[in-house]
Amino acid sequence: MTTSTAPSRLAVGFATALRRSGLAVSPDSVVAFAEALTAVGLEQRTGVYWAGRATLVRAPEHIAAYDAAFDRFWLGTPSAPGEATSPPPPPPALDTDEDIDDEPGSPAARPAMVVRYSAREVLRHKDFAACSSDELADARRLMADMRVAGALRRSRRLVPSKRRSGQPDVRATVRAALTTGGELVRRPRKAPSRRPRRVVLLCDVSGSMDPYARALVRFLNAAVAGRQRVEAFAVGTRLTRLTRELATRDPDVALDAAARAVADWSGGTRLGEGLQRFNDEWGIRGMARGAVVVVLSDGWDRGDPAVLARELARLRRVAHRIVWVNPLKASPGFAPLAGGMAAALPHVDALVEGHSLAALEHLAAVIAR
Amino acid sequence: MTGPLSPESVREALAAHDYLADDGLATAVFLALRLRRPLLLEGEAGVGKTEVAKVLARWTGGELVRLQCYEGIDVSQAVYEWDYARQLLHLRAAEGRGADVEDELYAERFLVRRPLLRALAHDDDGPPQVLLIDEVDRADDEFEAFLLEVLADYAITVPELGTFRAEVPPVVVLTSNRTRDVHDALKRRCLYHWVEHPDFEREVAIVRLRVPGLDEALARQVAAVVARLRDVGLYKPPGVAEAIDWAAALALLGRTTVDEATFDTTLGTFLKYREDQERVRGMGLAQLLAEAR
Description:
By secondary structure, chain A is of the alpha/beta class. Chain A has helices at 7-20, 27-40, 45-56, 63-75, 112-118, 120-125, 133-143, 170-178, 210-224, 251-261, 271-287, 305-318, 339-344, 357-367, and strands at 152-161, 167-168, 189-196, 199-204, 230-235, 239-241, 292-296, 321-325, 350-352. Chain A folds into three domains: 7-75; 154-195, no CATH class; 199-367, von Willebrand factor, type A domain (Rossmann fold), CATH 3.40.50.410. In chain A, the strands form two sheets. A six-stranded mixed sheet of chain A has the order 6-5-4-7-8-9, with helices on both faces. The radius of gyration of chain A is 26 Å and the shape is globular. Chain A starts with 6 loop residues before the first helix and ends with a helix. Chain B is α/β, with parallel strands linked by helices. Chain B folds into three domains: 7-75 and 114-195, Rossmann fold (3-Layer(aba) Sandwich); 80-111, no CATH class; 200-284. In chain B, 48% of the residues lie in helices and 14% in strands. At the A-B interface, helix 2, helix 3, strand 1, helix 8 and helix 11 of A face helix 2, helix 5, helix 6, helix 9 and strand 9 of B.
């Protein structure tokens, strides 16, 4: 680093390095960083470090990646072997549909359009675990039409109201009085509007959920994309927020991003601990308050059921409702006895199936209730 | 104010006004003042985010204008409102005179200025105001979009009157507890700093600064216990604010050292969940105190 190098060139170079390690860096942050470098100067390492932190980092989760990239770029530290500089490649569980279920002997040459169209009603009720990848792709298309919105609640925002129950809208009253020489002939009213509650989806991505995970993540994608009040998380041995990854309308891009983000697909489940992390870091401080929280899990939990029960109880004290979606509920002879499920049941407002399109449509209705 | 010369001078100035900032925060504040950009502070509750704006106001001499955000906040609470009662009276009085009643009615003397407008419509020669937009994550998306517009060009348009533009833009501090993500567009407009819990020595210094006359040994004990409790996974780990509250309580009780009984009776000053209190009692108060020595 020489002082004759313009800060702007250094800024662009460092931004490129950051992007390579997976951080999104917008052009105007780079401009801000260049200005910041000019202001703090290049003499001191801490100045350069904090100038970058203030202008290029936008979330605490990105600090680790920033630190690593900083050391590499400014201090020339080689990245440690085995250290993940780019997100891990997507695990097979979420690979593209094309290379799964394509075993020889499958009726690949069937007239797909006709079969699929007539099969639509069958597909609605077919268990995801029994679906081929083609059927899942169809199901995904149908899911895109589903509307997931939380139950309505009163907002503090007031809107003009025709009903006489509202409070006087003084601003509009003065406006109206202008035309009548100060006489209050028309007295408009306003009343609180209604807004959908936030919906938080917590999806179990452990091994036992594998038959359903692919379909359910699509459901998450359909629910999150384009709506601002839906949040999604993956719970396995750890908790991963997927809202940003799933926010795009292109399902392939969304699923790919989600697969990269979740490091523990098809691993074990520690539902209780996952919920605790959710409660600690997101839920209790606000995200779950007054929200409809949906847990998508079969309830097979390797963790301590007491932890799960405790965390659900905590969650229930702030949430509007807790809906548990168990794909196994549809199977004959199901009883909620799996350790986690039994512990969870007393704290759950509704237990619904989630194994098929029809079941998910029902779920959307339950969420809006 | 032309702006401070270096992050170091910012740190000294803040310290002179009873706020001990670390390198990161001092640099972020320095850049916010020099680049005239809003500063978005995120961090756990009780790490002193709001305090930054207050100390900035004390230091620069600018008036502190605070806007507390909440769900459903709208223009009439955040920006301006008309004084309807006086408008109506005026309207009745002007009846018969006819003509330009409407222009009279929507004049500045009937305008009630709310925080955002107060912070922008600043016309005397004093130092710029410090605008604190507190807990912006509690407001809804519509309000955030509006805020974005205001922070982009430091101007607000009142349809009936015209545009108010800040000659000297205010120093803007936004805080968020991260109950939801603030929109990227708003973040891009701002400098960002994640406020961490202070390290041990800084926490001791902060506690002593905020609780005058506190015994140093007691301050060290408080900071050590609080720092230890941050690592044990409580529902609500105590922040600096809680450490200060606890120290103040101890000082009020006239203690010079924390013994087990005092620890037990003052637990409620910094642990506000019953589960957390039980957890800490279960860890053994005597042992915690011994470790903190």
